[in-house]
Amino acid sequence: MPEEVFISYARFDREKVMPFVDILRGTGVSVWVDEGKIDAATLWSEEIVDAINNCKAMVVMLSQNSICSDNVVKEVMLASENKKQILPVYLEPTKIPRKLQYQLAGIQHLEVFDCDTEGLSENLCRSLNRLGVQTNDSLIKPVIIPKTKRPNPLFQLLLNPTKRTKSIVGVFSLCLLAFLIGFFLSTQTVSISQDGAIRSSGVPFSMVEILESDLEISTVQNGCSIAISPDGQKVAMVAVRNGQSNIYLRQAGVASWRQIPNTVGAENPVFSSRSERLYFNDKEGLKAVSIIDNTIEKITDQSANGVASGDGFAIISTGYAAGLSFLDRLNRNEKKLTTLDDSAPEQGDREFAHFWPQLMPDAKHVIFTSFLAELDKSSIKLCSINGDEQVTLIENAIFGRYINSGHLVFIRDDNLMAVTFDSTSRQVLGTPKPVLDDILVNPKTGSSCFSISENGTLVYIKDSESARLYNLVWVHRDGTEEMLPFESEKYFSFDLSPDDKKLAYTIDNSNNQDIWSYDFETGIKKRLTHKKSSHFDPVWFSGENSILYVSDTAPFDLYKYDFDSQTSSPLLTTEKDKTRPSISDDGGYIVFVEIPPGASRQKEDVYLLDVQNDKKILPISNTTYTESAASISPNGRHVAFQSDENGSDQIYIAQTLNPKGTKRQLTGTGGEEPVWGSDGTELFFRNGSDLLALKIDPESGNPQGIPEVLFSMEFVKQETLSAYKPSKSGDKFLVLKEVPGSKANKINFVFNWPEELKQKLK
Questions:
Q1: Which of 142, 389, 441, 747 has a Cα-to-Cα distance from 559 of 20 to 30 A?
Q2: Which residues of 435-454 are buried (b: 16+ CB within 10 A; e: fewer)?
Q3: Which DSSP category does 260 fall into?
Q4: Domains of the chain with CATH codes
């Protein structure tokens, strides 16, 4: 039978919390509290979630310790989402941080410090009675509260500075923490056993680095945002400062992160085998930068979803619908190393790509991800670099990495798994076990934000600490805002129905993206897609009870969901990725953005699908530049899109059936994300933080006047569809608004991690 009350607390407060647990149990209340007795075979997160889902009420013990606990924050958020009654109990004077203010605002609470301890038990039981939890008052006993234990004050100060200490700690903590991390990076000791495996010698321990206030880890990309060099002396990340993303590097013992020049918009940093170069993607393809002098070399014209480098060669993943390639660095000869298996009868069971290669210690074999649209059908494979051997090592796995301690780690079902692996016989030994959860994973590519050095240092980014949470709000033309009755979520692309009565939207979870619908009149939310893959960019058909959306089914294809039959069917499937669809009012034309196989995601073109003419595909703009964010006018005559052909993003317009002869530039000072008004007489677009409107003749497409700024706000920068949608009347706009304080600014380090793996795999 499920427990009635869930106790959420920080480990450092255990002695202070347990007397309350004893009192509640003594009055006949069943209590769930983490006492360290969870079965090792059971994932901690699963048991916690089940207990919260089944309880009547949560008692959250608030202290300086608990408000800094990620687990307590997650537990409170989950209880709030599930509409559980929450009773805050203050163990000491505590200022509630912004991330918990929404969940705890206006809730009656108890303060158990500086007061009569004999009355605390009675007050606690009475408060729970009001929340629907029955107690036997005749069994109430007084509670004696011991003093609160504190973690090491130095780390409490460094990792959780108060407002008073932030200005002082800011510089000091970064320098000291950098020194500490650098010290441990440079002093790891290892030994080599007879079987050739490297064994670390030291006690495993963890540290968390909080980035400078103006620096944020980029999570809107298709590769990994973080990498540690094989020698363990350098860490690279993709981060955003002042709205611009670059690669940043920090070397052991250096207090600050150094921006690497000429890496604007770069993605997926990967160190070379000797730690002296850093591979990365940008819109021009795959490049490598020297750590010593910052010189950049172009490797290929294609971007890569993973690089594994050896002496004089590199193994490259050339993108979707392609296998691995072997590149001879000396003569630049490139040859196919692996070929996709497309023999499965069902498209969803065919290999989508070979991603994320890693060279094995013998430099003769490489492991990689056999990527399928549904992540649980993907696997880790091994092949020889001469192409004469290929075997499957682990099913239901992505982003495999071999560790020199003799372990193979990979992602499965949101968890980092590990298993013993013999690199000589290339055999998996034993059964994989979960060793870490909450790793940031990109479901579109399977990239996972963790990296491990040869001396056993793990660096990773938590999904819970990288999630940007958003609210959906109405913003009127004068800038006034109106909140919607939605919980803060990881919302992605969305669209309003033509009559403004329904909303289709994407929620971005750790291992999948699913589409939901919301009825403004009934308040009913409905999940439309259910598979462990990506479904996004929903767009409504006018006059139909259906939507068009993008499905990650080898490759990104356009699917149609019918609300009446509650079924999905493919509308356009080709070998190239298709995103950001836009539909004319009569449904006859659909424009979309296309990405060729192996091309960088910053190389996009705009195409038209003539639905009524045998689904003929026509180019709207397919130059060497990046054209994206296409929007077709309601009458289907014109297409507006953004292009960087003049050096920066500007808004262009072209006739649907004669794009080359009618293309014209509408802006000169910048423009992004054009969206037509419902009657076709206005074209809305963004320029930085401004939302503008431009009058358009719907027949000729000629602009009428100059753009007018409607309002300004911090818009969310989305990877796909625009972060705003105009209402039917055009007097207000549905906008994604970021929840304050939700940004990725923490990097997690675990030193001597293989020692921890040994214990967990026993």
A1: 441
A2: bbbbbbbbbbbbbbbbbbbb
A3: P
A4: 5-151 (3.40.50.10140), 156-466+744-760 (2.120.10.30), 470-738 (2.120.10.30)
